[in-house]
Design brief:
single chain; four-stranded antiparallel sheet; 109 residues; globular; 10 strands; mainly beta
């Protein structure tokens, strides 16, 4: 299986839907990796974050929230049990305390 990763980039809303991207130092960037992609019974989130207690949500293809949780530490792994999920695609959303947002597409076999 493959992995999918994303780097959180600080963004400040300016107005009328415009955003200002703030470049930071690499060691201050948050990162979330989801694997394996595609998955079957579980998906593993490996993360390095700037803040503890960062929440995540998983949406199905209709936009319904099917899973929620909290990444308690600034670095670690979180296993999401997906045995009850039907095959298809899902969106994982991670939002840290500074409102940095990260979205990863997940695919279940």
């Amino acid at each position: 299986g493959d992995t999918c990763s994303a780097r959180l980039i600080p963004v400040i809303p300016v107005g009328d839907g415009e955003r200002l991207i703030i470049e930071g130092q690499e060691e201050n960037q948050s990162e979330v990796i989801a694997y394996p992609i595609p998955f079957r019974d579980e998906v593993i989130l490996k993360y390095r974050l700037q803040n503890k207690n960062t929440d995540f949500r998983v949406f199905d293809s209709t936009g319904k929230i099917i899973a929620t949780g909290t990444l308690n530490d600034t670095e670690g792994e979180q296993i999401i049990d997906t045995r009850k999920w039907i095959p298809g695609w899902y969106l994982l959303e991670v939002i840290d305390k500074t409102l940095n947002e990260n979205i990863i597409v997940l695919v279940k076999k």
